[in-house]
Design goal:
This protein has two domains: about 190 residues, Bira Bifunctional Protein, Domain 2 (BirA Bifunctional Protein, domain 2, 2-Layer Sandwich), CATH 3.30.930.10; about 40 residues, SH3 type barrels (Roll), CATH 2.30.30.100. About 25% of the residues lie in helices and about 30% in strands. It is built from five helices and twelve strands. The protein is globular and about 50 Å long. Bound molecules: biotin (BTN).
């Protein structure tokens, strides 16, 4: 906490030893009108949630499992921009604290050497078109050992420690992420999404490449052209038609 320089974000921190999911706690605090920037952090999650209904392994003591509550005055459909803002902030903070160059896989997985080290899950509280809160859940495999991962994940998941061969101080990393987010959040509220989109595209691994997109019901292949102002992925299929991809898993065929 003493590392923190930010003025709004993480001014209020709720620390828990063990919870089902920090998203759940954050949702509740938000309904109780906690201040914007409240951060919920847990040492362990017993029912961590991932995107698309998946679970998120959150072993005790070795990761950063946290949820941040934001209350931006923006239209509902712009909320995915904040997920991208978070991804850029985390990638920057990882570079600053470890020197490792992370890549972002659309929409918001952060990869080290091609394996996933960070997942981000954004949940919304809204009434008709008004946002009550955007809850950004960030899970970072910091010092998770290979043996702590479920065997089914070992080929696709990694941690900062596995890739960098040394322990990373979790408190410092949290502080660094909050400072990066604070800067970008102010930039975003003042000047819009432009700079963040640019930064995001700089970290993105798949832009310009051929990708396969899987949603619940279908799959499509084509070239990832970039993202829109709203953070929606643009996919150009072989007939030259552009598809807007709102939510899916992407893969690079042949890998
Ligand atoms: C993903 O599927 O990639 C997103 C994973 C998000 C995990 C984080 S850990 C902190 C917060 N609490 C949760 O239950 N999930 C998010």
């Amino acid at each position: 906490k003493r590392h923190l320089q930010s003025t709004v974000l993480a001014k209020h921190i709720r620390y828990e030893e063990s919870v089902k999911s920090t998203q759940e706690i954050a949702q509740r605090l938000s309904y109780e009108h906690c201040p914007e920037g409240t951060l919920v952090i847990a040492d362990e999650q017993t029912g961590g949630r991932g995107r698309l209904g998946r679970s998120w392994q959150s072993p005790k003591g070795s990761g950063i499992w946290m949820s941040l509550i934001l209350r931006p005055d923006i239209p509902l459909q712009k909320s995915p921009q904040l997920t991208l803002l978070a991804a850029v902030s985390v990638a920057k903070a990882i570079y600053k604290t470890t020197g490792m160059q992370a890549e972002i896989k659309w929409p918001n997985d952060i990869l080290l050497n091609g394996k996933k080290a960070v997942g981000i899950l954004t949940e919304l509280q809204a009434e008709s078109d008004r946002i009550h809160a955007v809850i950004i859940g960030i899970g970072i495999n910091v010092n998770v050992a290979e043996t702590e991962f479920d065997p089914s994940l070992r080929d696709i998941a990694t941690s900062l420690k596995i890739e960098g061969n040394e322990d990373v101080n979790r408190a410092k990393l949290v502080a660094c992420i909050m400072e990066e987010m604070e800067t970008l959040y102010h930039e975003y509220l003042q000047n819009g999404f432009g700079l963040i989109k640019l930064l995001w595209e700089g970290y993105a691994e798949s832009i310009g490449k051929r990708i396969r997109v899987r949603t619940l019901h279908e799959q499509k292949e084509g070239i990832a052209k970039g993202i829109t102002e709203e953070g929606v992925l643009l996919l150009e299929d072989d007939l030259g038609e552009i598809h807007h991809i709102y939510s899916a898993d992407i893969e690079i065929p042949g890998t």
